[in-house]
Write a structure and sequence with these properties.
This protein is of the alpha/beta class and about 625 residues long. It binds zinc ion. Zinc ion binds next to loops.
Length: about 625
């Protein structure tokens, strides 16, 4: 039933909602239109929620209105609710861009409440109300008074009690949010809402309490077997002078993050010093580089929001299937570049068509979103375009590696391949910048996740052009501009190569390396690799480590044929697919991704084997 419905809605979109040019590009395996089944209803892709505003002011739902949060526990609950409801208004993910900062006021409210309890019940100071007046003078807001304000020190016992209770509440709140986000359902029960939380840069005591609680919840896992949580995708934001080096105020939390990554694959790492996020405001964490777990990100908004991420999202993406163009250009580089230019222009027109289609919807189609301003900038008199225009129109790509193979006989692990790779990416970037100015819409280069497309595009390609060695002799196309998973290179080389291309992208990209279980337990080795990626200006970085769980005894680690403890073969094998984790990959992945996961080399195995490339001379 669900499946038949998908086929029909896709057909309907292709036949009635778009131009012949768009339809043909999609059907010819040249430019893929993502999430076709959400096209006709006019849904957009994803959103970074303006959490600060929603927690403070509350929001309306279909059934009722929800008051703003007044404690850390309710704040955590409301975030899960917001993620859930927003995910029903769209077809992709939801994120919080700086959740540690967002929760500071609620730590303070909880603390204050506990402090007065402490005064009343421990110290026996029944004049608590009078003290409250002293602490929160008329006109001041309790949300603004730091928990390390020296007025609180006057009563040591009450202070200690309040601090302990607040830390405890935060821990419970974080665990509750993890639990909720792993059990909520969306889209008629088909899947969990794709949720991501960015954090790590808030250095206030309150912010640090939040970060610690989030990381501890991540390390703890969920359920009886303490399984790794699939959601939320944690993204630790790294910044110079904040948490990168010993002596930085949040360096200890970076260490804790690495510990979590070693065990849980999360958090991933976002680089707030990334050159591509230039123009951000150091004093405004809403402008810090943040991302959706999958990799989708918001660049500079030409319509007035600048680098602000909150209340914006990816509106819709298309993906150019590069190997098809290489074949249609008779594998000739110059002909290819010409055809690519034409297709990038067509991709823009396809995005514009869909954008207009989405803009033609009535705001009541996504009432929660427009009523509460979760997508920001909405001016009723101007229609929903007023909000949608701040979002991103993403021009994606797939299989750069295979395309280079077709055009020059090698991929970008070689100098010759890299030279052409840069020429291709520069064209994408230049055109997106031009379109952005001409249309006043945020076009951006997108290194597409292509979870299913990696397999379906390959099948179509092979049907038309046959089996070509190192191009269509597998069940998948290589993700975006990634180095193919089978290339035997070490983590530093992988970073060197991909970091030369990440700067061309503004709508999102990810780089990851694969490590085996011995390496992954070595926190200082992990730190060296993450730091190397940051220093190489990688915006979004993740580490893949084996994370298998024996479903009978709960043993976790790398499990080969059977559990080393109880010999069970009932094993869940967690793998990363786009940026997010997916439950057991043998059941959750398509054939192409299954094969891709099995072909992934462990990059640390090649450490020291190839010299000369580690210094970045490639
Ligand atoms: Zn076992």
């Amino acid at each position: 039933m669900g499946e038949a419905n998908h086929v029909m809605t896709k057909e309907y979109a292709l036949n009635y909602c778009m131009s012949k040019m768009s339809r043909e590009n999609h059907l010819n395996n040249e430019i893929y239109i993502h999430d076709l089944d959400s096209y006709a209803v006019g849904m957009h892709n994803c959103l970074s929620l303006p959490i600060d505003k929603l927690l403070e002011k509350g929001f309306n739902t279909r059934q009722t209105d929800v008051r703003g949060a007044n404690s850390i526990t309710t704040a955590f609950q409301l975030i899960a609710v917001l993620f859930q409801i927003q995910s029903l208004q769209q077809f992709g993910g939801v994120s919080a861009t700086h959740i540690d900062w967002s929760l500071v006021p609620y730590i303070r409210l909880s603390f204050l409440k506990h402090y007065f309890e402490g005064l009343k019940y421990i110290v026996g100071d029944t004049q608590g109300a009078e003290t409250y007046k002293e602490l929160v003078p008329d006109g001041a807001n309790a949300r603004d008074i730091s928990i390390i304000d020296k007025t609180f020190y006057s009563n040591e016992k009450a202070y200690e009690y309040a601090l302990d209770m607040t830390v405890k509440d935060t821990k419970q709140g974080a665990e509750g949010m993890y639990h909720n986000l792993n059990t909520l359902q969306s889209r008629s029960g088909n899947q969990l809402p794709f949720s991501s939380i960015n954090y790590g840069t808030c250095t206030s005591t309150e912010g640090r309490i939040v970060i610690k609680a989030l990381l501890e919840a991540s390390i703890e896992g969920v359920g009886k077997l303490h399984k790794t949580s699939i959601f939320p995708c944690g993204i630790f934001q790294l910044g110079e002078g904040i948490n990168r080096k010993p002596g930085d105020p949040n360096y200890d939390l970076y260490q804790l993050a690495l510990k979590s990554t070693a065990k849980r694959l999360y958090p991933n790492y976002a680089n707030i010093d990334w050159s591509g996020n230039a123009g951000y405001d150091k004093n405004d964490p809403k402008t810090y580089f943040s991302t959706m777990g999958c990799r989708t990100a918001n660049g500079w908004d030409i319509n007035g929001f600048g680098q602000r991420k909150d209340g914006r999202g990816n509106i819709c993406p298309v993906t150019i299937i590069l190997p098809t163009l290489a074949m249609e250009a008779d594998r000739d580089v110059e002909k290819f570049m010409e055809l690519l230019d034409k297709k990038i222009h067509e991709a823009r027109d396809m995005l514009k068509e869909r954008f207009e289609w989405i803009c033609s919807q009535d705001p009541s189609a996504a009432k929660f979103m427009y009523e509460n301003g979760t997508m920001e900038g909405y001016i009723p008199e101007e229609g929903i375009r007023s909000a949608l225009k701040h979002g991103t129109l993403a021009i994606g790509q797939i299989a750069l590696a295979e395309t280079l193979q077709l055009l020059v006989g090698c991929n970008h692990t070689t100098e010759k391949g890299m030279e052409l790779a840069k020429r291709i990416e520069a064209l994408f970037k230049q055109r997106c910048a031009e379109f952005k100015n001409e249309d006043r819409l945020n076009y951006g280069v997108y290194y597409t996740p292509a979870e299913n497309l990696c397999h379906t595009a390959l099948e179509k390609f092979r049907k038309k052009y046959g089996v070509i060695k190192d191009v269509s002799d597998k069940e998948f196309f290589t993700n975006s501009m990634h180095v193919p998973v089978w290339e035997k290179i070490d983590p530093f080389q992988k970073i060197n190569i991909e970091s030369q291309l990440t700067g061309y992208s503004s709508a999102g990209c990810i780089t990851y390396v694969e490590l085996d279980s011995d390496m992954s337990k070595n926190i200082s080795a992990l730190e060296t690799i993450v730091n190397y990626a940051m220093d190489k200006d990688i915006p979004y970085f993740a580490i893949n480590v084996p994370s298998d769980t024996c479903l009978d005894c709960g043993y976790q680690g790398e499990i080969y044929n059977e559990c080393p403890i109880c010999k069970s073969k009932n094993v869940e094998r967690l793998r990363r697919v786009t940026g997010y984790l997916t439950g057991d990959y043998k059941t959750a992945f398509n054939l192409g991704k299954q094969q891709e996961a099995e072909m992934r080399v462990k990059h640390n195995k090649y450490l020291g084997r190839v010299n000369g490339l580690i210094d970045g001379t490639l």
